[in-house]
């Protein structure tokens, strides 16, 4: 069975998590943020050390452990009733991060919409991430050099996913608007494309 899926896509700091929580509060949608799953790992475990090693440099965790961890977490959510795999739409935030991950996940995902939260001014993203680091105590957002590397990795490794999914699934939303304006644009796109 393939999960009916919407991808929340954008650079670090573009608001994927905020919009995922907003849409995930609507019945029939389940928000899954891969970063939250990674941050819950125990640093003493092999996977926890791997995540810390890569995230401290602003790099992506290798594909295989990323896919395995996320698939296990989604399956656990389905087993314990947080995600109704038959009736809910899965909102993926932070995965897939590259074309190889998208190819692997295509066996289990029926991607209906890619919501691209775009921002042409990367300095705004740096400032957002630094504020988030202070507010949420997120070490992966604290160092400006690491943030800039994360943004460069997004441009080189993740942004090509837009071509992988093609223009027919893509809906661009200006992430520099207020969170409310972005939420309204997200809801409108979902209503137009999925109902």
Which SSEs are present, and which pair or pack?
Elements lengths: L2 E8 L5 H9 L4 E5 H6 L6 H10 L7 H17 L9 E5 L5 H7 L3 E10 L3 H15 L7 H15 L2 H5 L4 E5 L4 H16 L1
Parallel strand pairs: 1-3, 1-4, 2-3, 4-5
3D structure, described in words:
The longest helix has 17 residues, at 63-79. The chain starts with a strand and ends with a helix. Strands 2-3-1-4-5 form a 5-stranded parallel β-sheet. It has a single domain (3-189), classed as P-loop containing nucleotide triphosphate hydrolases (Rossmann fold, 3-Layer(aba) Sandwich). Helix 1 packs across helix 9 (179-194) and helix 6 (122-136) packs across helix 7. With 195 residues, it is an alpha/beta fold. The chain has helices at residues 16-24, 34-39, 46-55, 63-79, 99-105, 122-136, 144-158, 161-165, 179-194; strands spanning 3-10, 29-33, 89-93, 109-118, 170-174. The protein is built from 9 helices and 5 strands; from the N terminus they run βαβαααβαβαααβα.
CATH superfamily, please? Answer: P-loop containing nucleotide triphosphate hydrolases
**Major sheet size, sense and barrel closure:** 5 strands, parallel
Contiguous helical run count = 9
Provide the residue-averaged pLDDT. Answer: 91
How far apart the termini lie comes to 21 Å
Strand content: 15-25%
Q: Given the C-alpha coordinates, what overall shape results?
A: globular
Q: Note the run of SSEs as H and E.
A: EHEHHHEHEHHHEH
CATH topology: Rossmann fold
**Strand arrangement across the biggest beta sheet:** 2-3-1-4-5
Helix content: 40-55%
Rg is 16 Å
Text of the CATH class: Alpha Beta
CATH architecture classification: 3-Layer(aba) Sandwich
Work out the number of β strands.
5
């Amino acid at each position: 069975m393939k999960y009916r899926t919407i991808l929340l896509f954008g650079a670090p700091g573009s608001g994927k998590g905020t919009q995922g929580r907003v849409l995930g509060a609507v019945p029939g949608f389940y928000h899954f943020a891969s970063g939250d799953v990674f941050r819950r790992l125990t640093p003493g475990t092999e996977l926890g050390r791997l995540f810390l090693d890569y995230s401290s440099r602003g790099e992506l965790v290798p594909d295989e452990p990323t896919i395995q961890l996320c698939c296990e977490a989604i399956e656990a959510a389905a087993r314990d009733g947080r995600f109704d795999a038959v009736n809910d739409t899965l909102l993926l935030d932070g995965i897939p991060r590259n074309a190889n991950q998208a190819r692997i996940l295509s066996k289990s995902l029926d991607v209906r919409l890619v919501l691209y939260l775009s921002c042409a001014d990367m300095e705004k993203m740096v400032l957002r991430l630094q504020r988030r680091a202070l507010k949420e105590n997120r070490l992966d957002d604290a160092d400006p050099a690491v943030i800039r590397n994360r943004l460069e990795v997004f441009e080189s490794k993740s942004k090509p996913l837009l071509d992988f999914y093609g223009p027919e699934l893509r809906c661009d939303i200006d992430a520099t608007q207020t969170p409310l304006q972005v939420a309204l644009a997200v809801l409108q796109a979902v209503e137009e494309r999925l109902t």
